[in-house]
Amino acid sequence: MKRVKVLVVDDSAFMRRILSDILKKEPRIDVVSTARNGKEGVEKIKGLTPDVVTLDIEMPVMGGLEALTYIMKQAPIPVVMVSSLTKEGAARTLEAIHLGAVDFIHKPSGAISIDMKSMDKEIIKKILTAGKARVSPFNDRLNRQVDLPEDIQTQGNIIAIGTSTGGPRALQQVLRTLPCNLPAPIVVVQHMPSGFTKSLAERLDKISEISVKEAGHMEELHNGVAYVAPGGYHMEIVQENKVLKIHLNQNPPVNGHRPSVNVMFSSLARLEKVTTTAVVMTGMGTDGLTGLLELKEMRKATFSIAEDESTCIVYGMPKAIHQSGLADEVQPLTNISQRIVQSLQRKRR
């Protein structure tokens, strides 16, 4: 069994120790060393060639974002950021993901989180997932605006996107290229804790032609707007007097996820005279599989797209959709926004 070699980089001796202790519990992980700042971390990477690096964002000498930028330019390897739950921490974390970080671990109680051990299973899972991730620097040149065809369907459409690890970068690629006059609302489930989804939505809104916002309870859906499920809440879509609305709840996690793609897809299966384009992108696990099965059984006109392995940071969720035979198409990330728009041309009802 190949073990995942990890380098832990944090300016706090306590955090270096507690992260190392958590990871050492897992026999599939080998903590090869620790470093006190980004500069020391970069130096150790050269000699140790770790499989994964955990990188604190706020550090002296060389901070996490500067170190990440250097790593991604010189020899990209999977990096998992360690971040606080503050608004500023969330914004910096999303900047790190834009720069190439695979995922992040949030500190539950500030820079020195003595309760980090309560997250041990989640931390180990993230590191093992990162060890399998495909990494590359972000390339803005891959993006191009999609034009809206003249024969588009203008009513009764909804676009639903589910994603997890690597999702923020994938969403950036897709949402920023959709036309502002898109004749459908977009609902998005991105596996992410509370405190981060609002910053994600705000960042996506700034760079997209469509509007992007964190979803609110009982909010009406409007065409050309993307609604991101808040971290810690399931998002269901319901019909009230022919109007589509968002219902948020804190029912128990489904297979460890809240929000859950399965929950969102299942709610869409109950909508009448609504045709869904369902998209499943990068992420570990199988969230979205049972929900999409229900959606396609109940609504035969559903059109589904799974992201191709070649562009996935983690090929788990799309793989499950593809291998189950539920994917109408398998597309690389750069084609997905175009195929979403083209799917609205189909006379599927």
TrEMBL record:
Enzyme Commission (EC) number: 3.1.1.61, 3.5.1.44
InterPro entries the record matches = CheB-like (IPR008248), CheB_C (IPR035909), CheY-like_superfamily (IPR011006), Sig_transdc_resp-reg_Me-estase (IPR000673), Sig_transdc_resp-reg_receiver (IPR001789)
Give the SMART domains listed for this entry. Answer: REC
Q: Which GO terms describe its biological process?
A: chemotaxis
Catalysed reaction, written as an equation: L-glutaminyl-[protein] + H2O = L-glutamyl-[protein] + NH4(+); [protein]-L-glutamate 5-O-methyl ester + H2O = L-glutamyl-[protein] + methanol + H(+)
Question: PTM details?
Answer: Phosphorylated by CheA. Phosphorylation of the N-terminal regulatory domain activates the methylesterase activity.
| Residues with 4-aspartylphosphate modification | 56
The record's subcellular locations are:
Cytoplasm
Q: Which residues form the CheB-type methylesterase domain?
A: 152-347
Extract the GO molecular function terms from the UniProt entry: phosphorelay response regulator activity; protein-glutamate methylesterase activity; protein-glutamine glutaminase activity
- Alphabetical list of Gene3D superfamilies matching this protein: 3.40.50.2300, Methylesterase CheB, C-terminal domain (3.40.50.180)
Which residues does the UniProt record annotate as the domain Response regulatory?
5-122
Read off the CDD domains from this record.
CheB_Rec, REC_CheB-like
Which one Pfam family would you cite for this protein?
Answer: CheB_methylest
Q: Which UniProt keywords apply?
A: Chemotaxis, Cytoplasm, Hydrolase, Phosphoprotein
Q: Where is the active site?
A: 164, 191, 287
One GO cellular-component annotation of the UniProt record comes to:
cytoplasm
What PANTHER family does the record point to? PROTEIN-GLUTAMATE METHYLESTERASE/PROTEIN-GLUTAMINE GLUTAMINASE, PROTEIN-GLUTAMATE METHYLESTERASE_PROTEIN-GLUTAMINE GLUTAMINASE
**UniProt free text on domains:** Contains a C-terminal catalytic domain, and an N-terminal region which modulates catalytic activity.
Q: What family, per the record?
A: Belongs to the CheB family.
Describe the task this protein carries out: Involved in chemotaxis. Part of a chemotaxis signal transduction system that modulates chemotaxis in response to various stimuli. Catalyzes the demethylation of specific methylglutamate residues introduced into the chemoreceptors (methyl-accepting chemotaxis proteins or MCP) by CheR. Also mediates the irreversible deamidation of specific glutamine residues to glutamic acid.
Instruction: Report what the protein is called.
Output: Protein-glutamate methylesterase/protein-glutamine glutaminase
Organism expressing this protein natively: Halobacillus karajensis
The gene is cheB
